[in-house]
Amino acid sequence: MSYRHAMCRSIKTLREPYASDVTTEDVRAAALQYVRKLSGFRAPSARNAEAFDRAVDAVAAATQALLEDLQVKQAPQRHP
User: Fold this and answer.
1) Is 52 exposed, middle or buried (0-12, 13-18, 19+ CB in 10 A)?
2) What count of other Cβ atoms lies within 10 Å of the Cβ of residue 39?
3) Measured between alpha carbons, how far is 54 from 56 in angstroms, rounded to an integer?
4) Which SS3 state, helix, strand or coil, does residue 75 take?
5) Cα 45 to Cα 72: distance, rounded to the nearest angstrom
6) CA distances (Å), origin 8, targets 5, 34, 38, 47, 65
7) Which candidate among 20, 23, 35, 64 keeps its CA 20 to 30 Å from the CA of 70?
8) What is the mean pLDDT of the chain?
9) Angle at which helices 49-69 and 24-39 pack, to 10 degrees?
10) Furthest-apart CA pair in the chain: how many Å?
11) Rounded to whole angstroms, how far apart are CA atoms 34 and 45?
12) What is the model's pTM?
């Protein structure tokens, strides 16, 4: 599986050092944008709303787990 495909430009990077103080709202907004992009729906019809919401919840949970598990190399601290 390749991960080099272009990402939706409206989804921002949520990990350090690109973002700090990432909130659950940030994670959910990214999940919503991802599901919208994949489904092709800005807002799903009533008959698809439950599946759409479950997908957003699942993507948000996976995103939060990923962010918590990532090990990011810390930048060296400068001493005066």
Assistant:
1) middle
2) 14
3) 5
4) coil
5) 40
6) 10, 8, 10, 26, 21
7) 35
8) 84
9) 130
10) 61
11) 17
12) 0.75
pLDDT of residue 11: 76
The C-alpha atoms of residue 48 and residue 26 are separated, in whole angstroms, by 24
The answer to whether the bond into 17 is cis (omega within 30° of 0) is yes
Residues in the chain: 80
- pLDDT over threshold 60, residue 7: no
Q: Which two tokens stand for residue 7?
A: 């990402």
Amino acid identity for residue 11 in this structure: I
As given in the structure block, the two tokens for residue 70 are 């990532």
Q: What tokens appear for 19 in the block?
A: 């973002």
Cβ proximity of 75 and 20 under 8 Å: no
